[in-house]
Amino acid sequence: MNIVSLLSERRVLPEMWARTLDEVLAEMVGHLVSTGDLAELSHAPVLEALSAREERVSTGIGHGVAIPHCYSETLSDPVALLGRSRNGIEFNACDNALVHFVVLLVVPENQPNSHLQTLSAIARLFSQHAVREKMTLATTGIDLLRGLEKCELELD
Question: How far apart are CA 73 and CA 18, in angstroms?
Answer without folding.
Answer: 27
